[in-house]
Amino acid sequence: MDLSQLFNVAQLANALALASLLTILASGLALIFGLRDAMNFGHGAFYMLGAYLGYSVSNRLSFWAALIVVPLLLALVGAVFELAVLRPLQKRSRMDVALITFGLALVIGPAIYKVWGTAPLSVEAPPALAGSVQLLGTMYPVYRLFLIAVGFGACVALALWLKYTRSGMHTRAVSQQPHIARMMGVNTDRLSLLVVCLGTGFAGLAGVLAGPYLSVDPGMGASILISCLIVVVVGGLGSIGGAIAAAVVYGFIQVIGTVLFPSLAVLAPYLLLFVVLLWRPQGFGRGRVA
Amino acid sequence: MPDTTRRTLAAAALLSLAAPFSFAQGSGPIKIGLLTIDSGPFASYANLIEQGARTGVDILNAEGGALGRKFELVVQSHSGTPAAAVAAATKLAQQGGVSVLMGQTQSSHSLALVPKLDALNVLQIDTYAQSNDLMTKSCAPNYFRVNTPDALTTRMMQDYVKATGAKTWNLISMDYAAGQSFAKGFTELVQGQGGTVQQSLFSPQGTADFGSYISQLSKPSDALVVTLFMSDGQSFAKQAKQFGLFDKYKTVIGNGFATDFQLEALGDNVLGVVNSLSWTAELPGARNAQYVKEFVLRAKRKPFYTDADLMAALEVYRAGVVKAKSSEPAAVRKALEGLRIDTIFGNVEMRAADHHLIRQHGMAQVVKGANGKNEFVMKVVKSGPDIYPPPSPECKVH
Fold first, then answer.
1. Chain A contact for B200, CB < 8 A?
2. Which residue of A has its CA nearest to B41?
3. Is residue A288 in a domain?
């Protein structure tokens, strides 16, 4: 057990890189839950679809093109998801909607295997991000620093949109007091469409960013969904700020667990969930979509 | 319901239950059960395993099968846990009517299956699991193995490790049976040669981000050994390249890490890595050359070592059936013990004491080929009798 690893700048950056990816994904999930009151168990499948589309677009055009095109494509998928699934089911119970989104994941997964096959695919970082830089005496991959910047930048942009724009204000209003917001003239249907598209677009962005960082393989959706759900619950259901804080804590817990207790590291996120639910069941966040 | 109708129905039910067994033992095709994994890091290569097995079965059937009967492959996939493997094997034995099992059986799966083989009345001819326990305390009468166990890989590495001159080692291995078993054996090997293992890390199966492991492995050391498989190995290779990890070591050795069927996907991330490799298409022998030719014709690709292990398992099984003049597991088991068989590996022995096929193993390095594609170059090949450890007194197969 080497405790100096905990203060190693590379390990700190590793924690932030993982946190960054989870933040993007969890923000999207929190948005959808916050506004639609729907726990989307298909979010991991959307992320996986984004990663596979990112692989194809990167190969045909470039990584930079994928960074723009794929979130837009996933936003379109989100529009279909909202209009064909969430809206018709909005009067059904939360469990019904959750189960249907779970079923959606079971359909999207095999569809992806049919198109791209089951072998893991490799997405390389673009040349500008392919090398390493000196980070306080340690060589560290440029791409991970890019991921940290884009991930947290996207979430800051989301937070600014929620706080300072009209549509952001409407989103917060509908998530906290949907009936009053409707009475005040907010078009909740149009807002729901916008928010769900944003949520799935974020899943697509996370998928593209994950390609050069991790591996594009058939199990990626299921494995990250569990992490994402932990982050959303620990952060407070529907809270973006809480999700960001929870993702950072999650990233550090993972790294600390790997260094200090390697054989128990896989349990670390669940222990975090357990402790937070006991100590502060509402999570870190202040409220829904805040 | 009249008595005669009841009796007729009961007789029909009994006959229908017995039918799979009667076909398995007497006439009709000889059914071979193939276990594959449909989720987790190993799922990506399930299709490859199935294709390798089907091609092997087709080749043997074209040669006439055994005892005038053709072989038939019955495939059953499962989610990849030991319990799921046992359930799938049970289904193959009881509903599929198979006499023998093979396929994608990780060490933990085989260790779970071995105690059940007798009750299921099937043999298992393993082509996948590497754990040393399967040739020591977890031996069983109905269990046979044709692929190379960890002990063999460690032994192969012994000379290579000495030749590198490396004194300090870092290890990263999968955190389950195969990884733990190999790490233990390799640590003993290094210590036996006066070296030290500075770090021995274990990562859970399905790890996506190896960053924290790679950062730990950046501590100075002469050499690195990587025992990570399938998509975990691919993720690690890519991320290690991003961190420039392999450049920090004089030598990087892979165990199941840089495999031939993943070489294209791994790309330049594993250039220079030396990996244990038990078979290549270029190994000498007329039977091997014929197999490669037939395989390419039928499967439209070159065979990998996993295909070769499956082919050898099928050849071993055929030889046992022919000698026993039956596909009844107890008879085939007895026939296989001590049998010398002509396989694609050459004329090799199925050792009676522990049911292991005494076959070759080697070490190969990933280099850039003349055509610009990465390929393996064999650095050393040793024949089975030179490298297999003697049978363990813990192994009880009789």
1. no
2. A219
3. no
Query: Mind listing the pLDDT tens digit for each residue in B171-212?
Result: 999 998 888 988 998 999 999 999 999 999 999 888 889 999
Whether B267 sits inside 8 A of A224 (CB atoms) is no
A219 shares contact with chain B (CB less than 8 Å):
yes
* Residues B208, A224: C-beta atoms closer than 8 Å: yes
**How far apart are the CA of A272 and the nearest CA of chain B, in angstroms?**
18
Residue A108 forms part of a structural domain: yes
Global confidence as pTM:
0.79
Integer Cα distance of A261 and A253 in angstroms? 11
Q: What is the pLDDT of residues B321-348, one digit of tens each?
A: 999 999 999 999 999 999 999 999 999 9
Are the CB atoms for B73 and B57 separated by under 8 Å?
A: yes
What is the overall mean pLDDT for chain B?
A: 91
Q: Considering the domain boundaries, does residue A289 fall inside one?
A: no
Contact B206 A119 (CB under 8 A): no
Say whether B216 and A5 touch across the interface (CB within 8 A). yes
Nearest to B322 by CA among B345, B294, B343, B341: B341
Residues B160, B380: contact at Cβ < 8 Å? yes
Nearest CA in chain A to B39: A219
| A83-87, A234-238, B5-9, B125-129: range with lowest mean pLDDT | B5-9
**Do A14 and B211 count as a contact with CB atoms less than 8 A apart?**
yes
CA distance B386 to chain A (A): 36
pLDDT digits 0-9 by tens, B217-267: 988 899 999 999 888 898 899 999 999 999 999 999 998 898 888 888 888
Burial of B318 (0-12, 13-18, 19+ CB in 10 A): buried
Q: What was the ipTM of the complex prediction?
A: 0.84
**What range does the domain containing A214 cover?**
8-279
Does residue A275 lie in a domain region? yes
**CATH code of the domain in which A117 resides:** 1.10.3470
- Return d(Cα B358, Cα B385) in angstroms, integer: 6
Number of domains chain A contains: 1
Q: What is the pLDDT of residue A288?
A: 57
